[in-house]
Task: inverse folding
């Protein structure tokens, strides 16, 4: 696993210019709207902190894996990977992490081949 915590992932994403820190936003009025607007524009991960009535450090992270770059970073793949290459490598990366990956008869990842979960 490339990251031990969300904090580690935020630091790594910040190091590649993928994070916008927002201090003092209103928890009720700002977080949802800013998150949606930023997601629609393919913008950065948002890390909200210093909400009124809460001590600093009670943070909200939004849009963590919303872009190919951040998703690749989270999956320990090159951040400049082509989206199709990411899809090709994803099952192998998931297996490395212990995830169950269902496959079709040719050994390709295929969610339609997964048994029903009860």
Result:
């Amino acid at each position: 696993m490339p990251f031990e915590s969300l904090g580690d992932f935020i630091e790594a994403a910040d190091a590649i210019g993928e994070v916008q820190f927002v201090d003092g936003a209103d928890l009720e009025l700002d977080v949802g709207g800013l998150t949606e607007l930023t997601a629609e524009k393919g913008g950065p991960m948002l890390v909200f902190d210093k909400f009124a009535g809460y001590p600093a450090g009670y943070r909200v992270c939004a849009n963590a894996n919303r872009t190919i770059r951040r998703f690749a970073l989270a999956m320990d793949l090159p951040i400049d990977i082509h989206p199709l290459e990411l899809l090709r490598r994803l099952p192998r990366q998931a297996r490395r992490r212990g995830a169950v990956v269902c496959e079709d008869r040719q050994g390709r990842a295929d969610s339609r081949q997964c048994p029903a979960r009860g």
Summary: The helical segments are 6-15, 31-40, 68-74, 83-96. The chain has two domains: 1-81, 82-118. Residues 14 and 84 are 25 Å apart (CA to CA).
